[in-house]
Design brief:
With 357 residues, the chain is α/β, with parallel strands linked by helices. The chain contains 8 helices and 9 strands. Among the domains are: 139 residues, no CATH class; 89 residues, Ribonucleotide Reductase Protein R1, domain 1 (Orthogonal Bundle). 38% of the residues lie in helices and 12% in strands. The strands form 3 sheets. The chain has a 5-stranded antiparallel sheet, with helices on one face. Strand 7 and strand 8 form a beta hairpin. It starts with a helix and ends in a 25-residue tail after the last strand.
């Protein structure tokens, strides 16, 4: 009787120890599992951070490569060459034009009309000569009406957009017929117009009338305008969406124009008018150019995230300054492309060999 009474507490103690041991093992297993999950999450975060850093380096590398090329190559009517001119070719091009540099196409140029290209790694880019865009710096009535008509604005609504924009950027406080100055803005509880040129194309969203346009239509206007270039417009780098405002008889004329431009850029307004059988609006000798300007809009994007847009002015002859000047840089939505970015066929955009797995 005594021994059986002693064995009962022993069995209870053994059972308690076993239960505690099992609970400890379960707790350890839970802790190990949580640590494992945390470690895996940290590894995934580190991998994502590494990818983001690599993507950023690819983007910046592509940007710097383009800036280097733009500042060290002689731009032709076809775009930006990737190979430098030899001394003999440079001398020949200078002599052929009696001292003026001959900007005839060389072949293999990067186009400056918004064609997308593959950059370093997983990055892509496109370049737009800003003389091919419609300038909002100091627009005139006729040109602004023509531009708005190309964007599908009803002719009856054009004055309500044209005049407020002219009032927004002019230096006085006098109203155009359909315009708006400080009093009209205050009546709508809006910031008054600054009476200076637009700083960015996106600023049209602050202009009375323009702010009421559908967002998609306003975004298209932003893509087709410049606030950094004022002067003759370049038909060789003009986006297809703008052509109907300058070429009569589109879409047939525009299709013919683009097909010819793809084969060889136009050299003069006389050539355009002769080949197409049309008359360009305005003064063909003054209001048009056929070589790119020194102001470029570069849009870059990586595998993920927003795109980066920079406006750059080439300044090769500037004294005591760099060969280019960044006018603005800001994020924009990734471009909606109609075509897959194509390779540049240049060693400048070839990824260096790596030992990484």
């Amino acid at each position: 009787m005594v021994s059986s009474r002693r064995r009962a507490p022993q069995r209870q103690a053994a059972g308690f120890v076993l239960a505690v041991t099992l609970w400890l093992l379960a707790g350890i297993a839970i802790v190990v599992g949580l640590i494992t999950l945390w470690s895996l999450e940290e590894v995934r975060d580190a991998a994502r951070d590494r990818e983001r850093v690599e993507a950023q380096l690819e983007l910046l590398g592509t940007r710097d490569t383009l800036l280097y090329l733009a500042s060290t190559r002689d731009i032709t009517t076809a775009g930006l060459p990737v190979e430098a001119l030899s001394e003999d070719e440079r001398a020949t091009r200078t002599l052929e034009e009696f001292g003026a540099f001959d900007r005839s196409p060389r072949g293999g140029e990067l186009q400056l009309d918004g064609v997308p290209y593959l950059g370093l790694g997983g990055s892509s880019f496109l370049m737009q000569d800003e003389s091919g865009l419609y300038s909002l710096v100091w627009p005139n009535d006729a040109g602004l009406d023509r531009f708005l008509a190309t964007r599908g604005i009803d002719s009856k609504k054009i004055p309500g957009l044209r005049d407020p924009l002219l009032d927004y950027i002019d230096l006085d406080d006098l109203n155009h017929l359909h315009g708006a100055e400080k009093r009209e803005y205050e009546r709508e509880d809006l910031p008054p117009p600054p009476n200076r040129r637009l700083l960015l194309p996106q600023e049209v969203g602050r202009v009375m009338g323009w702010r009421d346009l559908p967002g998609s239509q306003r975004d298209q206007i932003v893509e087709l305008t410049t606030t950094y270039y004022a002067g003759a417009i370049n038909l060789n780098t003009m986006p297809a969406e703008l052509l109907p405002g300058w070429l009569q008889g589109c879409p047939e004329t525009c299709d013919t124009f683009q097909a010819q431009r793809a084969l060889r850029p136009y050299r003069s307004s006389v050539e355009v008018e002769t080949l197409l059988g049309i008359r360009l609006p305005g003064d063909g000798a003054v209001e048009y150019r056929y070589a790119p300007s020194d102001v470029l809009r570069v849009t870059l994007w990586g595998r993920t995230g927003a795109a980066l847009r920079i406006h750059v002015q080439l300044t090769p002859l500037a004294d005591q300054t760099g060969p280019w000047s960044i006018l603005a840089a800001y994020p924009v939505p990734r471009p909606a492309l109609n075509a897959t970015p194509k390779p540049t066929s240049s060693a400048f955009f070839a990824d260096p060999p790596t030992d990484r797995p």
